């Protein structure tokens, strides 16, 4: 299966009306998403993280930046968004200026797998929506998040690549066609969360939501096939449709699972 471009197309063409239409048809609301997060989940995240107007919040993998801005606007908090995709960060910075939030919302181009460019105990909360699976050395990242969070600060992240059953090499290739992915066995994230020093508060199974989003996303794109091919090219359009169909199949059959993890920084250092 050849490599397929999802993120450059989505973020580089953020302002194109066809992509806006697809996001609305897929999610019901446009946050510039390329994730498996439902609207209910989006509204719940700030509550689970206990975000207040005084909170300093970190988003790892902010993409186009629209969801980070939504949190800042609805909660009054300050937020920093990081992403490795340059087109996403350019778009995010443009949105900050357009909305007049340059004093509270900041975006940085950053490869989180190489460490976080912040001082110890800089943030009250951190989250990553369907990003952890793209990052190698997961424990190192969780240790970095632990470092930059204040005592009792909360972390929320989702992982849509927890193995639930048998998967063929063709399916793995198709599911991985949009970039680097790390597939993990059940219980692996819970173990790493504890190793990093966090106290696990909650684990939620959101696999069914992933199936619904993938199906709506695929169908929304298919109904706008000609417009998308004009932007992406036919090989990339077909590749993304195969990717989304693969997500539908693997999640509906629960051979791949998506979980959301909520954890809190234990104020007692690891090993004490």
Automatic annotation (TrEMBL):
<keyword id="KW-0808">Transferase</keyword>
<dbReference type="InterPro" id="IPR013216">
    <property type="entry name" value="Methyltransf_11"/>
</dbReference>
<feature type="domain" description="Methyltransferase type 11">
    <location>
        <begin position="58"/>
        <end position="157"/>
    </location>
</feature>
<dbReference type="GO" id="GO:0008757">
    <property type="term" value="F:S-adenosylmethionine-dependent methyltransferase activity"/>
</dbReference>
<dbReference type="Pfam" id="PF08241">
    <property type="entry name" value="Methyltransf_11"/>
</dbReference>
<dbReference type="InterPro" id="IPR029063">
    <property type="entry name" value="SAM-dependent_MTases_sf"/>
</dbReference>
<keyword id="KW-0489">Methyltransferase</keyword>
<comment type="pathway">
    <text>Phospholipid metabolism.</text>
</comment>
<dbReference type="GO" id="GO:0032259">
    <property type="term" value="P:methylation"/>
</dbReference>
<protein>
    <submittedName>
        <fullName>Methyltransferase domain-containing protein</fullName>
    </submittedName>
</protein>
<comment type="pathway">
    <text>Lipid metabolism.</text>
</comment>
